[in-house]
Design brief:
alpha/beta, globular, 12 strands, 7-stranded mixed sheet, 314 residues, 5-stranded mixed sheet, Metallo-beta-lactamase, Chain A
Length: 314
Amino acid sequence: MKTRVVLLALVALIAALGWTFVKRPLAVSDTPGVPMPPVPNVKGVSVSVIPTAEVAALEAFNVRGGSFTTGFTSAVAAFLVEHPKGKVLIDAGAAREIDAHLKTIPLLMQVVSKLTLLQPTVDALNAGGLEPRRLSAIWLTHSHWDHISGLADLRDQVPVWLTEEELEYAWQAEEEGKLFRELQAQAKLQIRKHQLTDGRYGPFPWSKDYFGDGSVVLLPLAGHTPGSLGILVNLASGKRYLFIGDTAWAREGVDWPAEKPFVSRNMVDDDAQLVRDQLVLLHKLQKMHPELVIVPAHDARVHAQMAQFPDREK
């Protein structure tokens, strides 16, 4: 009798876990979203992606409803934004010693992460003719290891910017902030804090027009971490890129919209409900703005459609 009860409980547990992988798009209300301001015509602004490493994964673990038979390339990348007033990296990509950085994350994630280093960020920049010292800043969408690894090779040359909330999180999060604290201990990062003081921008309650001309706007996107940042780049062509960090790992997270499956989000998302709210907001925003390309930090399929450094899109 006891054996049967245990078996039934095990079957129920497996069924419950399996349900968390079943496609279940988030509810989207009929209430119209709030549009963003028009694209300003600012010349000399460009974007490109710097692919630095890849992690082989399955689609099913990156978005709820994804396939268990379809592979998913989880990219580790940096994004270059160039403006007449400065050159900025969004996230730091991979360091030369990224294999050592991988060992700072939970054991389960290490086991399932088959990482391939393509080209460390610092080497990619030099190969493309851009000396790292010419960068004015590295903006972190958030402080997790696969967004800050490249700081190991760049920290003595470039200031690192993040929000006050994200800095506090990085200092306090036992596992998620481990690499950040190690890099800071090895050689102090040149830390700067974003102040989102420019008021509402479309559906976002506050913002920061970084260059003062509407071309690059920093936006709050808390949920994955408490201080996660979205970065909007408006090009003179009329095209817009919104870099969303890990709010979604896959483009389907915004397209459907759908959250990460339970196993994944339970390991990485700080506030699951807030992530759901952000995904719905981004879904509506994408529907309203066909010129908008939403860029999850790890979706190599989206990155492949962007200009690959040293090429740029203006």
